[in-house]
Target: RNA helicase
Amino acid sequence: MNKEGRVEEEEEEEQTFEELGLDPRLIRALTKKTIDKPTPIQRVAIPLILEGKDVVARAKTGSGKTFAYLLPLLHKLFTQSSSAKNLAPTALILVPTRELCQQVCSEANSLIELCRVQLRLVQLTSSMSVSELRTTLAGPPEVVISTPACIQTCLSNGVIQGKAVQDSLSILILDEADLLLSYGYEDDLKALTSHVPIRCQCLLMSATSSSDVEKLKKLILHNPYILTLPEVGETKDDIIPKNVQQFYISCAARDKLVHILALLKLELVQKKVLIFTNSIDMSFRLKLFFEQFGIKSAVLNAELPQSSRLHILEEFNAGLFDYLIATDESQSEGKEQVDDQNGSERKKSKKHRKHKLDAEFGVVRGIDFKNVHTVINYEMPPTAAGYVHRIGRTGRAYNTGASVSLVSDEETEIFEEIKSLLGENEDKVSQFIAPFPLLSKNAVESLRYRAEDVARSVTKIAVRESRAQDLRNEILNSQKLKAHFQDNPKDLDLLKHDKMLSKKAPAPHLRDVPDYLLDPTTQEASKIVKLARAAMGNTNPSRGKGSKGRFKRSRDPLKTFSAEAPKRAGKGGMKRKVKDTDNGHKQ
Ligand SMILES: Nc1ncnc2c1ncn2[C@@H]1O[C@H](COP(=O)(O)OP(=O)(O)OP(=O)(O)O)[C@@H](O)[C@H]1O
Model:
């Protein structure tokens, strides 16, 4: 690293965790998690943090930022002398959402569990009462993971004394710093900084650089090292990790259902699949639609109680179901656009505004979905930054992934904005986001009749009823879940979130697509996707971390296969390059 804090990656490429100077117990814990070499951000950040430097680390989604600060933090706590009795925690990790609190806390606990040390890590969230906060903070624990709003509640209620923070706090970490201000935590953070002592080491981790990050840097850090990795944010082409292949399909809004049905039912994308919609109603519409074709899925959104959300995430991560439909922006609710049944009109709906949405919820932001191979944008996100965060849920760490965006005419503007953020200009051939090559027009048409028939049965009333029913169930579940998970944090099988909502069982002829409906090209494409999945060791969705598919490009069907029917089936179709797919997309 030179004086400006830049990383010369080649020099440090081969460094191991041992060489970074970490405690052997932590290295053993990593090995048990089958993590054997540091990611680039970890190689650079860990030594600096161990030296006590203030650090601003910017690294792409999924690049391993959490361990980049947790490992040196735990190392320091393992080795520090415990002579002085602190009245407040030694380390404070602030994150924007409760889901992240939970995630960071369980990542940290999974490391220390294996190290057998006396160290207490707790999470505090705004759902806790003052007396719960007081009990949790008794001791005090060495590390607190929380949101800025909750820490402010603790300070203003005297649960934590400002003076005690000044005496005890030695490390403050702001994770997902680019999001903290957008979640409205500015005042809470300002109130906290007056208690943060000058000697306190401050770390700021973020996926993107923005004026908010600059603001926070000025507010909290003292002359920090700014880590600018060569592969991060310097040029536009590296905003999305290179191991994620991005595709799009242009289609009319009313044809999106038949397109997504073809993608899933004909198995043209790899599982697990995370599907994004912009409204909760749309996610239920999709779930009900899928059910009729025997495709099981679960929905995740800001309306659900927190314990249900955590449970859904845990089940999905554990591989108990393959399709998760997420609505990522709580703010988008109320502004939602709902297609009517034939999709010809779009109108604003203010229904369900009355449902309380959790402001501390963030599906997309920073959540570490495990082994998601494909992200589908069923609806394009409202902003280009939203696109980056959505796509960042796949291709985490050394895994590979793909994204498929369904783009309607109405979404062309945002799609252009995304392409220009990725670095494409109008006359250039698409480099970063290409037409999806495996779906032929014939394949879509073969399913059209069935899809449209089922779509008609998924009426707005059906959607509304299912949404209300699901919410009622989840509220009931959440009470049980809360109690249950306190006693059995690892028990994942209590309740199912991918259960059928529709009263009508799927008709057998919709469950299985008969052969006569499949054209040979699609059959071939689907076979290749399955083979690739098998080659990647990705046939069993419930395989754990050890099964990370290292995707060889030569085996990647998206790179080697064209859906365009070869002149003669079976001859040369496998390697032909896509020029113009029959979805009408040019490459
Ligand atoms: N050195 C490593 N080798 C392999 N996997 C790793 C390594 N470090 C972390 N991981 C795994 O990579 C995944 C992504 O890590 P993490 O959540 O820290 O990413 P991130 O940079 O914080 O992403 P985001 O900005 O989206 O929050 C996690 O599942 C984590 O366990």
User: Anything to note?
Assistant: The first strand starts at residue 55 and ends at 58. The pocket of adenosine-5'-triphosphate is lined by residues 35, 37-39, 42, 59, 61-67, 207, 366, 368, 392, 396-398 (CB under 6 Å).
